[in-house]
DNA sequence: CGCCCCGTTGACTCTCGTCAACAGACGTGG
DNA sequence: CCACGTCTGTTGACGAGAGTCAACGGGGCG
């Protein structure tokens, strides 16, 4: 062995064995309370995913590559982004446990996806899913509703980037992340300042300064950079609408 | 009469008559070369739309309203936007002839839609469409693909707003509009400077100054504010990537 | 142990926003 | 027909918010 496994090889291996096992041996089967098991959708057990893993900072797919697979995050976190030729980068979304990513219009990815942290995913072939969609209105409706949800997120981000100040952007972002982590108000950010900056259309320096400012205002407390405790009422007051 | 017709009343009127006629009497039937006729999709003649008209600056639906209808532009132009409580506005899209808008996630609109100019649309009830989608995989797939196309546009806008300068934003916008009008390089903008500014996350003054700057650089020529002739090679060079 | 990366902070710059004035187009009504 | 007000678009002067460049501390990893 020694050569790095690819999604394709993992898929071939999975098909030659029954039952399905993770290539990393951590095949507990059902994901982290997402209620999906290894199926694409909760009520669609015939589209099974193959477990796969990516290391921190590893690329999952690149812009322009053939969109052969789609992915569901089981554990860890992934970012999708686009880059301009001069290196400016815009992250269009973070995918945490449970979220599905990799669907694009057309046959190639128009984003790059990378693992923020060591990440376990389920991989699904795109073709069978699309074939299933053309036969099953139910599958197609689920895909539609997923796309619509993503669309709403993208448009919220549009408003954030077009019309909000640095402070409002960061506050909204933190409230959003808190919500995705259960809304306890305390969590560890899985992404770096650079990732946050490239998501919010800012620079790392501005993000850092804005963190300090929010802390001065008593809207949050930092313990060691990534670990955050929010004062949610004050943060929401910053976001206001 | 004298009371303003609503989509609901137009629909009721349409159903009491056969064949279908526009409430404004301009019922040439098939739309402007979009190839759709009055059907929702080209190959889906059973979902028929009712012609309806809106005056310049008239609201079609508001954020938070019940999403009872969806719309296809026959002639004219429409903008979708969101507003913050302090009045800051972000336009998330312009809908020109042929484009379908008004689909949202959930039962209420999360945007406001307004006619930029006098506009003729076809109105479709949302419920029957959704019912059709749950029965017909083909309809559902069309809806999915439409949502995915919108998603790509929204993410392109995200990159524009997050990482591009005023000049790049305006140049990209003009190239985009030119493309939608057939790519001749000469057209009349259907929207005001304010609309452009609110789409590009800028102010009207910056838009105006950037127009002047692009004109100085020989990237376009203005004849009377709205009428534009692009020097497409130079504009694309500004956009670069 | 040392290097590198991440995060923070300071000083300065610059793009874009704000405030203001003005010109031209348009519609209305005297 | 012209005076008037309004709306759109342009331009100038100025200011503020975010970007750039640079230095530095701390922690993790080889």
Question: What would you say this structure looks like, in words?
Answer:
2 copies of one chain form a homodimer. Chain A is α+β, with helices and mostly antiparallel strands and 241 residues long. Chain A is 38% helix and 25% strand. Chain A has 7 helices and 13 strands. Chain A has helices spanning 7-16, 126-135, 137-163, 166-180, 193-200, 204-216, 232-239; strands at residues 39-41, 44-48, 50-54, 59-61, 69-75, 78-83, 89-95, 100-101, 112-115, 119-125, 186-188, 220-223, 227-230. The longest helix of chain A has 27 residues, at 137-163. Residues 18-34 of chain A have low confidence and may be disordered. The structure holds a DNA duplex (30 and 30 nucleotides). Chains A, B: Residues 164-234 form the HTH crp-type domain.
Q: What series of H and E elements makes up the topology of chain A? A: HEEEEEEEEEEHHHEHHEEH
**Rg of chain A:** 19 Å
CATH fold type of the largest domain in chain A? Jelly Rolls
State the secondary-structure class of chain A: alpha+beta
For the secondary structure, the number of strands of chain A is 13
CATH architecture annotation of the largest domain in chain A: Sandwich
Task: List the chains of the largest interface with their residue counts.
Answer: A-B, 45 and 45 residues
The tally of domains of chain A stands at 2
Average predicted local confidence, pLDDT of chain A:
87
């Amino acid at each position: 062995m020694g050569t790095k496994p690819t999604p394709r090889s993992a898929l071939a291996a999975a098909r030659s064995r029954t039952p399905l096992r993770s290539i990393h041996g951590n095949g507990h089967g059902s994901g982290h309370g997402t209620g999906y098991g290894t199926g694409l959708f909760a009520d669609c057990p015939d589209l099974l995913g193959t477990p796969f893993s990516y290391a921190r900072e590893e690329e999952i797919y690149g812009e322009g590559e053939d969109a052969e697979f789609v992915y569901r995050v089981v554990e860890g976190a992934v970012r999708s982004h686009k880059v301009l030729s001069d290196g400016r980068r815009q992250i269009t979304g973070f995918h945490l446990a449970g979220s599905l990513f990799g669907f694009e219009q057309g046959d190639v990815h128009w984003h790059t996806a990378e693992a923020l942290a060591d990440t376990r995913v389920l991989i699904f072939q795109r073709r069978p899913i699309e074939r299933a969609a053309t036969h099953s209105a139910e599958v197609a409706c689920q895909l539609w509703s997923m796309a619509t949800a993503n669309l709403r997120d993208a448009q919220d981000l549009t408003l954030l980037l077009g019309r909000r100040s640095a402070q409002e952007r960061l506050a909204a972002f933190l409230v959003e992340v808190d919500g995705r982590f259960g809304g306890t108000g305390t969590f560890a950010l899985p992404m770096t300042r650079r990732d946050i900056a490239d998501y919010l259309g800012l620079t790392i320096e501005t993000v850092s300064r804005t963190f300090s400012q929010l802390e001065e205002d008593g809207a949050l407390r930092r313990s060691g950079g990534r670990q955050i405790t929010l004062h949610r009422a004050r943060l929401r007051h910053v976001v206001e609408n």
